[in-house]
Amino acid sequence: MPETEHLPSRDQAWDLLCQYTEKEGLRKHALAVEAAMRYYARLWGEDEELWGLTGLLHDFDYERWPDPENHPYRGNEILAAQGYPEVMRTAIMGHAPYTGTPRETRLAKALYACDELAGFVTAVALIKQSKRLADVDLSSVMKRLKV
Fold first, then answer.
1. Residue 58: C-alpha distances to residues 47, 102, 144 (Å)
2. Burial of 48 (0-12, 13-18, 19+ CB in 10 A)
3. Domain of residue 50, residue span
4. Which of 4, 61, 70, 108 is most exposed, with minimal Cβ within 10 Å?
5. SS3 content of the chain, % helix, strand, coil (to 5)
């Protein structure tokens, strides 16, 4: 797996996330996207570390630079300087539609979908009385999707 030969560790990625992201909600979102990405990597026989770290770090720069002129561009520069693989950085660029970065790889397509889905499921949880993800069931999600 040449693209992950120099992939930093999960601990290093977590430290980077925490360095730039202080808000608990954004950290939880990162963890949710990471979990979903790891699931799909296992399901499709892909590199779980690469996929998981891509999900974990996709918004790490958002708290500091939430505007479209900077996010995810600034994060991409930081990741490049730290040696994160191009395939990961391209997927992260593609998760923001306004960058114009095409989502050509399975990794990029999964990140875009998992980011949207994690945000949506969290929103469904927040309208529940308990505000707990554990109380979100499929019927609640489907109802909000109007499917």
1. 17, 16, 25
2. middle
3. 2-145
4. 70
5. 65, 0, 35
The DSSP code sequence of 58-70 is TTTTTTT--STTT
Radius of gyration of the chain (CA): 15
Give me the pLDDT at residue 81, please. Answer: 94
Higher pLDDT, 144 or 91: 91
Half-sphere exposure of 124 (CA within 13 A, CB side): 20
The b/e string for 16-38 (b: 16+ C-beta within 10 A; e otherwise) is bbeebbeeeebbebbebbbebbb
pLDDT band at 5 (very low <50, low <70, confident <90, very high): low
Question: Number of structural domains, the chain?
Answer: 1
Specify the residue for token string 């109802």: 143
What SS3 string covers 77-97?
HHHHHCCCCHHHHHHHHHCCH
Tokens 């560790």 locate to 9
Rounded Cα–Cα distance for residues 30 and 24 (Å): 10
pTM: 0.86
